[in-house]
């Protein structure tokens, strides 16, 4: 919790998607696909050919207002989990993390959990934006992801 103890610093949403974990993970692990399902309406575009395959990789996205972010992959398990720390190019990550976890329920259904963790965010300029990233916004990403994966 933040100092005011009302705003959670770890926000999570989840839903079941009628698609395989592999299909869903392809949409998440390929940065070029991310603007299609981003419920925060924050991602403008990402170059093709950056599909993530391991911890330690870095992919780049351009935000809707034109800034570029490098995203350092800190957790990775193919078709199960991916998490990254965004930062300005060439700078240390300020401490917020995006995580996706996929749990296959059967061949055609997957429980997907999306988490935004800003408990270690050190950049005061990003606090207002972090506070505005609610479970509803994470759910919007999940809903858009489901629409793409189920089509």
Automatic annotation (TrEMBL):
InterPro entries: Polyketide_cyclase/dehydratase (IPR019587), START-like_dom_sf (IPR023393). This is SRPBCC family protein. Gene3D superfamilies: 3.30.530.20. SUPFAM superfamilies: Bet v1-like. It holds the Pfam family Polyketide_cyc2.
